[in-house]
Automatic annotation (TrEMBL):
Compositional bias of kind Basic and acidic residues: 625-637
Protein name, entry field: Polypeptide N-acetylgalactosaminyltransferase
PROSITE patterns (UniProt xref): RICIN_B_LECTIN (PS50231)
Cofactor: Mn(2+)
Name of the gene this protein is made from: GALNT9
Length: 766
């Protein structure tokens, strides 16, 4: 195959050379030679006779030139001219050469439409040569390395669905141009049931003529998703090593040899080319710093700082140990990939498979590393082809991976997504085959993985419960971390995203906001009553001057039997007329009459209870007036920091949209007095607790947990344990720290059998 690829261009060049030699000979014969006097005399008589011969030679030369022009056109069409009929550009030079930024003068609607369709500037891509060069960002040491002459061959698999044709073909040209022909066995294009017409006939005709026998196209009859599309490519591949790539990449010089060399040394090693960036708007190639690939507890991938031992080594060309992979490119021994279970075929569409593979490879005796000497530039698109349900599938796949590979730590994933462990409302499918695979491969525990591969992960083993904090009388509003630079909690329509995730620890710490999953990320802040004002503050837990200021009592009693004197409250009613909406501090807020519409299905209140800061000994978290009480409730988490509210972002017929600046009331004149009142209404504040009440309605003024508690011992099975205290479910009345009726797993040996002063309604957590 490789020989055939070499022969065709060599044959064409040979023909051109032969034609050039013939032309040169003709020209030489026609050149006037220097003549001496005698020769001139003898030749004078022959000039008349040779005139007709000269004219014949000139005609012959013209014919040769025409044939050469035709031959050149044929060769160019065969090798370099196939892109022209489909509106693309080949060959050296032109826009974007050397990875430089490129722009188009015209900013037509067609350009905008393609940008919206593909998530990058496809109109510009069509004007950039398929053969453009890109910078060589390899460390200097990499360029001096030599490799074995007996490296294995590789099959390169590209997955695409509705990509721009020019981007796909540039990926193909790039890998062919920058991979030694002896190493590149084949290129496989897997079309995951694209709708784009030009990806059918145009693509087929182009690759069949440009790369006959080298490029294969596999077409799925239905949309399978990225994960199963890669499995299709693996089935077709015939080389001993397979590389999986997105179809919007460009390869750097010398990318293949380091990857194949590392796999030749150890077939249980999955290698990841270092990723550089192709800007989606200008196609400029930017260098990314060397990094490992990690993830947070939601199993979303991210770049992380390389391990300390790599930094200490001081060799920027050395492989980087990585806990997982970003997913856009990886190279693996084909047989080994099958032995360890490929990608999980039970995962759907997109997301999580890259993290699951990293955990599985490490736990089952393999390894994964990033190679700074092997580099691939990648377009980070602004739009994914699976965008409609990508959040759901990412969550589903994350839970599936957690159930198989993470042992007791799987509760961290549920907590990160802010959903309960029991009845999470997500069907992640049957995992029995994957559990059997883990047993057959005799894999390590997830605790081993954290200790030896990903020690940077934060663990939250002291979590008693987690969820949303909402008012039981107006449950459409939840406690929210608000703007990151504001350092104060707000009340905001419940949306189930991570900004409303509340974690309550055995110590009594109440943390609000997304989990700081690794040491590279800031952790969620503590809710603090520092006694300095009417509103509670959000502070980094380690920065709280008096640790007791961050401790809260969770009590399950009626308000009339509370020992507290001051409470965390909010005004009893919204201040604007029903249905109006506004933007406060950059956040979309609906006030008045929208709680049920915004909040969706309401969570059940599990009992009368109150949260108070333990440092004050007399402060409760509740709403004063007629809207009192909160509850811990659960909703699905989305990774976006502040996305639209459920239901498409439309509340009572009015679409929430980003403001031009400051606060904005949609569809109405701005009333600054009302806006100030609204800000006050949506900010929790410390007030005096109400006097004891005998009103049965007060039993609804509560915090109640709806999520399962986190296991104390991640390595052991969690089991909820409650015992009845009798009394037919009457509340336990006391003035001590008590908790709700959820259970937890075994306590670690370092703790007492019972967390301090825990009680429940009914009964007690034993």
């Amino acid at each position: 195959m490789a020989l055939a690829r070499r022969v065709k261009p060599l044959l064409a060049v040979s023909i051109l050379v032969f034609g050039g030699v013939v032309l040169f000979s003709v020209c030489c014969r026609l050149q006037a030679r220097p003549e001496g006097p005698a020769q001139a005399a003898r030749g004078a008589g022959r000039r008349g006779r040779s005139r007709h011969a000269t004219e014949g030679a000139l005609a012959e030369r013209e014919a040769v030139l025409q044939r050469l022009d035709h031959l050149e056109e044929v060769v160019y069409t065969q090798l370099n001219g196939l892109a022209k009929p489909i509106g693309l550009v080949e060959g050296p030079g032109g826009l974007g050469q050397g990875g430089m930024a490129a722009t188009l003068r015209d900013n037509s609607q067609e350009t905008e439409g393609k940008f919206e369709e593909y998530g990058y500037n496809a109109q510009l891509s069509d004007r950039i040569s398929l053969d453009r060069t890109i910078p060589d960002y390899r460390p200097q040491k990499c360029r001096q390395m030599t490799y074995s002459a007996h490296l294995p061959q590789i099959s390169v698999v590209f997955i695409f669905v509705n990509e721009a044709l020019s981007v796909i073909l540039r990926s193909v040209h790039s890998v062919v141009n920058r991979t030694p022909s002896r190493l590149l066995k084949e290129v496989i294009l897997v079309d995951d049931n694209s709708d784009n017409v030009e990806l059918k006939l145009n693509l087929d005709q182009y690759v069949s003529k440009r790369y006959p026998g080298l490029v294969k196209i596999v077409r799925n009859s239905r949309r399978e998703g990225l994960i199963r599309a890669r499995l299709q490519g693996w089935k077709v591949a015939t080389a001993p090593v397979v590389g999986f790539f997105d179809a919007h990449v460009e390869f750097s010089t010398g990318w293949a040899e380091p990857a194949l060399s590392r796999i030749r040394e150890d077939r249980r090693r999955i290698v990841l080319p270092a990723i550089d960036n192709i800007k989606y708007d200008t196609f400029e190639v930017q260098q990314y710093a060397s990094a490992a690939h990690g993830y947070n507890w939601g199993l979303w991938c991210m770049y992380i700082i390389p391990p300390q031992d790599w930094l200490d080594r001081g060799d920027e060309a050395a492989p980087i140990r990585t806990p997982a992979m970003i997913g856009c490119s990886f190279v693996v021994d084909r047989e080994y990939f099958g032995d360890i279970g490929l990608l999980d075929p039970g995962m759907e569409v997109y997301g999580g498979e890259n993290i699951e593979l990293g955990m599985r490879v490490w736990q089952c005796g393999g390894s994964m590393e990033v190679l700074p000497c092997s580099r691939v530039a990648h377009i980070e698109r602004t739009k994914k082809p699976y965008n409609n349900d990508i959040d759901y599938y990412a969550k589903r796949n994350a839970l599936r991976a957690a159930e198989v590979w993470m042992d007791g730590f799987k509760s961290h994933v549920y907590m990160a997504w802010n959903i309960p462990m029991s009845n999470p409302g997500v069907d992640f499918g049957d995992v029995s085959e994957r559990l059997a695979l883990r047993q057959r491969l005799k894999c390590h525990s997830f605790k081993w993985y954290l200790d030896n591969v990903y020690p940077e992960m934060r663990t939250y083993n002291d979590t008693l419960t987690y969820g949303e904090v909402r008012n039981s009388k107006a449950s459409g509003y939840c406690l929210d971390q608000g703007a990151e630079d504001d350092d104060r909690a707000i009340l905001y329509p419940c949306h189930g995203m991570s900004s409303q995730l509340v974690r309550y620890s055995a110590e009594g710490v109440l943390q609000l906001g997304p989990l700081g999953s690794t040491a590279f990320l800031p952790d969620s802040k503590c809710l603090v009553d520092d006694g300095r004002g009417r509103t509670p503050a959000l502070r980094k837990c380690e920065d709280v001057a008096r640790p007791a200021q961050r401790l809260w009592d969770f009590t399950q009693e009626t308000l009339g039997q509370m020992c507290a004197r001051s409470c965390l409250g909010a005004p009893r009613a919204p201040v604007l007329s029903g249905g109006s909406q506004e933007r406060l501090r950059g956040r979309a807020v609906a006030v008045a009459g929208g709680a049920n519409e915004l909040g969706g299905p309401q969570e059940a209140v599990l009992g009368a209870s109150t949260l108070r800061p333990a440092c004050m000994g007399r402060t409760c978290l509740e709403k004063d007036g007629e809207h009192t009480g909160h509850e811990l409730g659960g909703r699905s988490h989305r990774e976006q920091r502040h996305g639209p509210v459920p239901g498409g972002g439309d509340v009572q017929g009015r679409q929430l949209r980003a403001p031009a600046g400051g606060a904005e009331v949609l569809g109405a004149e701005v009333d600054h007095q009302k806006l100030d009142q609204a800000r006050e209404a949506l900010t929790p504040r410390l007030t005096l607790c109400p006097r004891p009440s005998t009103d049965p309605e007060d039993l609804g003024r509560a915090w109640g947990p709806s999520h399962s508690a986190h296991h104390w011992n991640p390595e052991g099975p969690g089991r909820a344990r409650t015992t009845s205290a009798g009394g037919g479910g009457e509340p336990v009345l006391s003035c001590r720290r008590v908790l709700g009726t959820w259970g937890h797993g075994d306590l670690p040996p370092s703790r007492s059998a019972d967390p301090p002063q825990l009680a429940a309604v009914p009964g007690r957590i034993s």
